[in-house]
Amino acid sequence: MMKTLKEIMTKDAVTVTLKDNIYEIAVKMKENDIGFVPVVEGRKLIGVVTDRDLVIRGYAERKSGSAAVEEVMSKDVTTVSSETTVDEAAKLMAKDKIRRLPVVDNGELVGVVAIGDLAVREKFEDEAGEALSEISEPVKS
């Protein structure tokens, strides 16, 4: 039987809300050694912020640390359910060049799966390796 994301996802993901600012997000990323933070309203996922978002949409555009989360977050986020198989997730991550995938059930964030979560499962090393190599390829224009 195929493993589902429920079995391998990080369940206690660090999150932020719209009340946080980009400095607070950067501090959370540093303290937790992460580069991806889901933005939630209660438990509902409304966006994500990556370390790249902070640089490109934040600091490179001369936004101050007190700038609102909304100014840098990505709103069109690909999500999957906790019943998604590891294989399906690996294929989706490779196809869409996604390194981290929020897991949402009934509209609520229940976890996050990173490409590394796929890689540490022996049986899925090939899929994770393939996904990572495809994600790392330059985008063809």
TrEMBL record:
TM ranges: none
Pfam family for this entry, one: CBS
The keyword Protein biosynthesis belongs to this UniProt entry's keyword annotation: no
Residue stretches making up the CBS domain: 9-64, 73-128
Swiss-Prot/TrEMBL keywords: CBS domain
The keyword Manganese is annotated on this UniProt entry: no
SMART domains reported for this sequence: CBS
Cited Gene3D superfamilies: CBS-domain
UniProt-listed SUPFAM superfamilies: CBS-domain pair
Entry protein name: CBS domain-containing protein
